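Look at one record.

>
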Amino acid sequence: MKETTGITTARRFAALAVGLLLILAACETPPEEDPFEVGFRHDPDNPADVSIADGSLSVRFEALQESVDRAVLVTEADVLVPMNRQLEYRNREVWRASIGATVDSYDIVVVDAQGETERHGPFDVPEEPFEELAWVGESVGYQIFPERFNNANPDLVEYALEDEAWNYKHPDHVDWDGPPMIMDAWDDDEITDFHGTHQYFGGDLEGIIEKLDYLEELGVTFVYLNPINNAGSAHGYDAVDFMEVAPNFGDEETVEELVAEAEARGIRLIWDFVPNHVGVGFWAFQEAIAEGGYETEYWDWFRFTVEPGTEIEAGNPEHYESWWDFGSLPELETRNEDVFDHLMEAARYWMEFGFSGVRIDVPNEIVNREEFFSALREEVRSVDPEAYIVGEIWGRDATWLQGDQFDSLMNYAVGQQAIEDYAAGNQQAHAAAHQMQLVYADYPEAATGMQFNIITSHDTQRLLTAMGGGELGEDPPGEARERQRLAAAMLYALPGMPVTFMGDEMGFLGSQNQDRHRYPIQWGEEHEPTVEFYQELAELKHGLDALDSAVIRDFETEESLLAFTRGEPGTGEKLVALFNNSSEQVKTHALPGGSWEDARTAETFQESVEVPPLGWRYLTKRR
């Protein structure tokens, strides 16, 4: 936060006016050739530099740290817009400005630390900049693993065994002990090595409908469902048929009812798609491995590594290419035109139920990714022009966020590599802030504004366990619960949408050991103070305008304290989010001028504020 405490509003505006007049004068006279070096870098064709967020054109440039004193954006109509330092990482910094989306071209003028001026441009605005879907950043998200969420119709669970992978695998390649199991009770504590895959407790779509009121009270407006297509396991990532609802979950009418009932409560849904691989029970795979199957069109749907006519053993990864050599997951040949078309048809099938978007499993495994995901985007958006498309990429990778493939990535790059480590006390504030700024400098602001922010999921340990709370069935210490609240408060303060894995908001435990994090939700055993805390976070998210903004800026750290600012500089609501991961020290943080209000307690502060151990604050001010 670069404002100076004690400077009045009038003096700030006077200083700004003088600065702009100096820059405008410099604009009238071309500078000498390369008078200084600031390391200026800007490319209007790179969405990280130019995109549409918060309904305006976001323009950013990079320079060497501390090399730029001030900067201004000059439109083709000679309108001057001051630019602000936003982020710092390594030896570079990012400057930004927001201007009207109707601007066609602009110049960028920078003044270096010695007062010398350089003008860059003119730059043309791309015809179709990458644009944020505004509804995403206004949402509060929740992830449901359907088989373990809620069992409303116990009669359905027996259908899980009809297409179970066990039925299709060659006996020599069954990679778990014993047959699949239907559990006698929702809280049966018999956990085996295949708990997360081949034990069935009976969660179904009716169970989700039954709990929509709970989600509404929690403040949820967005739900991501793990696969609900017919599959060979409890997790659903081994499709038997992409265009058939899992019979143990319900049928097409149940899906339609779920979408309609969710919409009536203001909740959008997205579905989970696995275009890279299928299960051994997938109908086309069964056709291909049958006697004489190599003579069918389906042989080329897969990449077999044996001679045609050889017996194919389902489950044997030496006979065909499979995901990470798991023989239960044969990979599809997406370069095959028929496979390509079938997957596009599947995407349309689910979108036409009324889903608001799709999450893509392991997209980096698709061999023709650019062609495939560009086509998928077009297919999905043809059904719903505001459909949200999310890719399961765990690291920082902006190549997916160019406006032609995904709108967002599952933001583990911030959620785990910064928030989880920091909130657990395993990372210093400056390291967490640096990791966050790396991500936000790399990503288009349009993508930042609709980021799928997540710490935990069906693929990770539960949040309370990650904070030192222990294993399923244990009694978590109070400090672990405080650290969970700290992590959740950070997640909700980010631009984009916070997404909570089911049960984390209830204070449940579970490691990845035997998939204990996927243990069925024990309704009635919630830790009520934790549920109420997440309700409070949702109220803040829905109630504070600055938290809907795509803008995050002005990171500051001091030992255990981390702070950043949300909201557009100079306009609307400004929010400073402060966090302290020390379990012992109270941290005092200097505030910019004016009066600041704690959004939770309504306390007001001037000049400075204290943040208690393992505490946090959202401080707001309107300009």
